[in-house]
Amino acid sequence: MLPLWLFLLLNLGWLAVIAGHPSASASASQTGFAATGAMHGNRFSFESGAAWKGRRGETNWWWQVDFGHPRGVGAILQLQGDHDFVLRNAPKSYRWESSDDGASWNVLENTVVSRETRMFRLHRLTALRHTRFLRLLIDETQGEFPTIREVEFFETPRAKVEFPDWIIAVNTTHERTLPGHGQEFIPLARSCVGWEQTQAQQIWLGDFDEAFARVEPRPTCAFLSGNFKDWCEVERETWRGTQALLKRGTLPLWASCGGAQGLAILAETGVDKPWDCPHCRDPKNPKLPIYTHIGHTAKKACGDYTGCVHERGPHAVRRLNEDPVFAGLTEEFQVMESHCGQIEWEPTGWELIATAGPGTLTKSQCLRIKDRPIYAAQFHIEMAGTPENSKTIMANFLRLARAWNATGDSTAPAADAPGVR
Question: Rounded distance, CA 189 to CA 58, Å?
């Protein structure tokens, strides 16, 4: 005789199917993370009872839904991973399949992913599919096991899927391990009034490209961190995806310090030409004349900054116009600096909107592309030290990014942004 709890569970499951309510099952689950957790109704939770986690030690996994009767499916929203803002313990290589009888399966077009990099992904099918069963087949994971936070199904391929604002934090350093440099943008964004529940994902620079940014649900904006190597030491290819995004100009960007220098370098020189630094530069034939150091006290090798003049800590900055990103700030305001390199001039199509204030050496403090919310700031809003000014700038930029996405056609091919090669 079956135990009472198992008898009830089985019969309740069948009752749900008979009543037309979806029921979920999986290949194997961790304790507290049953298949039903992926249809719990909380998109972003990965706590016990609110997500499905496949069992450790397997070589493949599956998660399945039975709708109880055939229904139309045109799109699938999939949220995954068990970290607040890093893709961890999530499907990496997978596909969705449909079935009318639970025995014979067909792969759904536009749902095959060989190298997942997104925590949030909307699969839009090429055509409406009527099916009773859907299953997610997972061949490889990012981490030890797959975690599905939530799965939602929509009845038409062109269904309007509401999704909250979310941001990308890009680690532009050579260190690929995440969480990493640049994660500080996330709590700063969440500290702004009205943005407390902002979702986020941090990725490494080499994964930041159009393919990542254009997948639905689309991000509100992206933030680029500073970095630690001088530009002659940087692997240029890791910036190619950012260069393509900058060229299209359809994603609002805020870049700090080394990230800002990177945008200026992409706009002026690009990744296909060699880069140098002031230590190894031929003064008669500079490769990156747009990038210089503040000054030197001694001649050192590339990557050795002990002989460089630095600006560190709070410094005065002066805005040059009424750019909305500085709304609410006085003409001169304090920001955090931590650099020895600098941008010499604004690339074609850009404008200088903030410069050095009293006691500050670096003149190019903040630049932007003239007709879109893409900013390159030598200072660090993400660094602790000037919290109110940083929060003001962050809130202003987030509002600008949201407005741009609402009014600009960010889904259509755009003319190249000015000043990008």
Answer: 38
Which DSSP letter does residue 157 get?
A: T
Q: What fold is seen in the domain 15-154? A: Jelly Rolls (2.60.120)
Q: Which residues of 318-350 are buried (b: 16+ CB within 10 A; e: fewer)?
A: ebeeebebbeebeeebbbbbbbbbbbeebbebb
**Distance between CA atoms of residues 259 and 281, nearest Å:** 21
CA 255 to each of CA 125, 150, 199, 220, 403: distance values in angstroms, whole numbers, following the listed order: 35, 32, 19, 15, 19
DSSP, collapsed to helix, strand or coil, labels residue 68 as strand
Model confidence over 298-313: pLDDT tens digits? 999 999 999 999 999 9
Q: How far is Cα of residue 366 from the mean position of the Cα atoms in its chain?
A: 22
Distance, in Å, from the CA atom of 17 to the CA atom of 12, rounded to the nearest integer, reads 9
Q: What angle is formed at CA 174 by the lines to CA 169 and CA 178, rounded to 5 degrees? A: 45
State the pLDDT confidence band at 8, using cuts at 50, 70 and 90: very low
Domain assignments of the chain as residue spans, ordered by start: 15-154, 166-407
**308-322: average pLDDT:** 97
Q: Quick one: fold of 166-407?
A: Rossmann fold (3.40.50)
- Note if the bond before 70 is cis, omega within 30 degrees: no
Residue 331 CA, chain-centre distance (Å), reads 32
| Per-residue pLDDT tens digits for 39-90 | 999 999 999 999 999 999 999 999 999 999 999 999 999 999 999 999 999 9
Q: In this structure, what token pair is assigned to residue 68?
A: 């109880």
| Contact indicator for 39, 150 with CB cutoff of 8 Å | yes
pTM summary value: 0.92
Tokens 């870049």 found at: 255
**Structure confidence at residue 21 (pLDDT):** 76
Handedness of CA 92, 93, 98, 103 (dihedral sign): negative
| pLDDT tens per residue, range 194-249 | 999 999 999 999 999 999 999 999 999 999 999 999 999 999 999 999 999 999 99
Whole-angstrom distance, CA of residue 369 vs CA of residue 121: 29
- Res. 415 pLDDT band, cuts 50 70 90: very low
Rounded CA-CA distance 114/93 in Å is 4
